[in-house]
Each structure stands twice: as structure tokens, then as C-alpha cells.
Write a structure and sequence with these properties.
Elements: H1 13-39, H2 45-68, H3 74-95, H4 101-122, H5 124-129
Helix pairs in contact: 1-2, 2-3, 3-4
Length: 132
């Protein structure tokens, strides 16, 4: 894939927001899940799930940086990460047994935000910025 050679000052505000969200929430996920793993007494399904979440968060941070630079590889990576975040939010409720209404609401908001991001990334004008 070719790298974007244009001016990143032409980057739409929506992509700047998406990149910021990716980086911020990726960092929060790495720290939050890392703390839970370190404080966990045993390796169980929840711990394995958190390790996977950290790996996805790392990819999310990389995607955010790529989106800021309008790199061609950032577009498919962003779509992949967004799809995985949807799965993580849904599966996380099952694996981690999130029953509290606030946790279910948080997961639902994560899914809704991810769907909105996915639609924005799939717009022809957005794809064109990444050379796709």
C-alpha cells in the first residue's frame, strides 16, 4: 500500500477525533487491563480475555497514530480494530460476567460508538483520503 503524500492539515476533524479516541481509549485499556492482570491471583478466562484486550488496544493505538498521518495501512487496521472492539464489548459481557447495568450500558455505548466510527471510515470520501 502506498503512503499518503498529501498535507495532513487537510485531515477532516472527524478523523482527528477518531484518532484521538483510538489513542486515548487504547492507552486506558492497556493500563486498566494491565492493572487487573497484575492483581489477578490466577490465569483464568477473564485474564486471557484481558491479555487479548491489551493486544487489541495496542493495535488501536497504532491505528490512531496512522490515522493522524493519513497512512494507507491505517484505514484497514482501523476497520479491523473497530470490528474487534465491537466483539470485545459483546463477548466481554459474557466472559467477564458483566451484569451491572452500568457495565452493560458502557458496553452498549462502546458498540454504538464503534458502529458510528465504522460507518465514517467506510464513507467513500474517507476511504479516498487513505488511498483506498
Amino acid at each position: 500500500m502506498r503512503a499518503f503524500t498529501g498535507n495532513t492539515s487537510q485531515r477532516p476533524t472527524g478523523l482527528t477525533v477518531i484518532a484521538g479516541v483510538f489513542i486515548l481509549f487504547g492507552l486506558l485499556s492497556v493500563v486498566g487491563n494491565g492493572v487487573r492482570i497484575v492483581s489477578s491471583p490466577a490465569w483464568d478466562a477473564a485474564t486471557v480475555f484481558r491479555v487479548l484486550a491489551i493486544i487489541i488496544a495496542g493495535a488501536q493505538i497504532v491505528a490512531g497514530i496512522g490515522v493522524l498521518g493519513l497512512r494507507a495501512w491505517a484505514w484497514p487496521l482501523s476497520l479491523l480494530v473497530t470490528a474487534l472492539i465491537i466483539v470485545i464489548n459483546i463477548v466481554g459481557n459474557i466472559v467477564l460476567g458483566m451484569q451491572a447495568a452500568t457495565m452493560l450500558a458502557t458496553a452498549a455505548m462502546g458498540v454504538i460508538a464503534s458502529v458510528i466510527i465504522m460507518f465514517y471510515l467506510l464513507r467513500p470520501s474517507t476511504r479516498a483520503l487513505f488511498g483506498h
